[in-house]
């Protein structure tokens, strides 16, 4: 536990030190990238509105929970790569 606390403290210090020398150009670049990600999300969702609330529901209904224990031994989950393999979408096959 103490080792984990020390690790978190050191990583937070390094993260803070990394943010200090950032200039306006780096910050503007990050804002541009975030705006691009929002635009891609809006294109992906189509007519649905992008909502950034903590209690927002997913745009696609969740699959039914698995109640049969035989299905847990051999789940059928399909993975689809997005953005050239940087992101992955997983879908449970019923």
Please write the string of helix (H) and strand (E) elements. HHHEE
Total count of strands:
2
What does the main sheet amount to? 2 strands, antiparallel
Helix % is 40-55%
Could you characterize what this model shows?
With about 90 residues, this protein is of the alpha+beta class. It folds into two domains: about 60 residues, no CATH class; about 30 residues, no CATH class. It is about 50% helix and about 15% strand. It is built from three helices and two strands; from the N terminus they run αααββ. The protein has a two-stranded antiparallel ribbon. A hairpin with a 4-residue loop joins strand 1 and strand 2. The protein is extended. The model has no long low-confidence stretch (mean pLDDT about 75).
Topology:
Blueprint: H1 2-19, H2 24-45, H3 69-73, E1 77-82, E2 87-92
Concise synopsis of the structure shown:
With 94 residues, this protein is α+β, with helices and mostly antiparallel strands.
Keywords:
two-stranded antiparallel sheet, 3 helices, 94 residues
């Amino acid at each position: 536990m103490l080792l984990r606390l020390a690790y978190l403290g050191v990583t937070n210090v390094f993260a803070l030190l990394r943010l200090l020398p950032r200039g306006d150009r780096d910050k503007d670049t990050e804002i541009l990238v975030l705006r691009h990600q929002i635009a891609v999300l809006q294109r992906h969702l189509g007519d649905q509105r992008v909502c950034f609330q903590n209690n927002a529901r997913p745009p696609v209904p969740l699959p039914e929970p698995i109640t049969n224990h035989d299905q847990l031994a051999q789940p059928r989950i399909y993975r689809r790569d997005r953005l050239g393999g940087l992101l992955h979408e997983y879908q449970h096959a019923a």
